[in-house]
Amino acid sequence: MTWALGIAATQSSGLRAMFGSMCKSLHPGHAAHDGLAAAFLASKNFTSSERGIEAPRGWGHVLSTKFDPDIITAEFGKRYELMSNMYKPFACGLVVHAVIDGCIQLRNQHGLQPEAITGVELTVCPIVMELTAITDPQTGLEGKFSVFHAAAAALVFGAAGEAQFSNTAVRDARAVALRKCVTVAPDPALSRIQARVTIRKKDGRTLTQRVESALGTLARPMSDADLEAKFRGLTDGIIGASQTQELIRLCWSVATLPDAGAIPRAAAAA
Asked: What angle do CA 220, 149, 131 make, to 5 degrees?
């Protein structure tokens, strides 16, 4: 009953209280569903207020204390927000991507083994501890909201995809041990795509990496190879390698396909 109440509550607009549960993934999926349903309903003459956004009791004023419609209409037809969208290389919140990026860089540059690490010091944007402060996650979904696990997973596995945020990975003895060595300090001077990572080793050496723009941001976009690697990670265990490759081919050529429906048809699991 409490799950049903929570699932119903979060569908109003999405609640942070749901972070670490399946409802967090429901948020964007439900929003996409509602957007498509709205377009279909409007096309069938389903009526609505014509001031649903800007009216005094409309969406903008109800959900924001600083609603400014000029931000929406400025450069209308010239600036497209979609062009500022970013791809996420890691299967967790953007605010810990810089931490993961820095840990993976240090791991790869120095061939780090988790057993040789005595401490991991993270300096991050303050919002990191507001959103991802779970110190001892017990499930993969909770791990997505733990900067401690994110850093440990990056150093232990050298990656931070879905597999590294699974129940198995969160309970991995190496990850559990290493995240106990992680300390976090907020720094208001850092943005949410920045971080400093300092690793202390048993041999007395200290390694530091500063990330100015996390991988996947507009300043450091993912390469085509990065995108394909992430796609393969998401389809692994769901569809076969040859089907995945065909999907990749279709996606890259979507602009020239005579029928975009070829993509969802090719994605159907056998």
From this structure: 70
Q: In degrees, to the nearest 5, what angle opens at C-alpha 96 toward C-alphas 201 and 205?
A: 10
Inter-residue contact 236 to 245 (CB < 8 Å): no
Name the CATH topology of 94-211: 60s Ribosomal Protein L30; Chain: A; (3.30.1330)
In angstroms, the CA 122 to CA 235 distance is 32
Is residue 177 within 8 Å of residue 194, measured between CB atoms?
no
Q: What are phi and psi of 123, to 5 degrees?
A: -115, 125
Q: List pLDDT tens digits, range 45-89.
A: 999 999 999 999 999 999 899 999 888 888 989 999 888 889 999
pLDDT digits (tens, 9 = 90+) for 166-194: 999 999 999 999 999 999 999 999 999 99
Q: Where exactly does CATH 3.30.1330.120 map onto the chain?
A: 94-211
Q: Is residue 35 classed exposed, middle or buried when 0-12, 13-18 and 19+ CB atoms within 10 A define those classes?
A: exposed
Listed in sequence order, the residues at least 6 apart from 159 whose beta carbon sits closer than 8 Å to its beta carbon are 104, 153
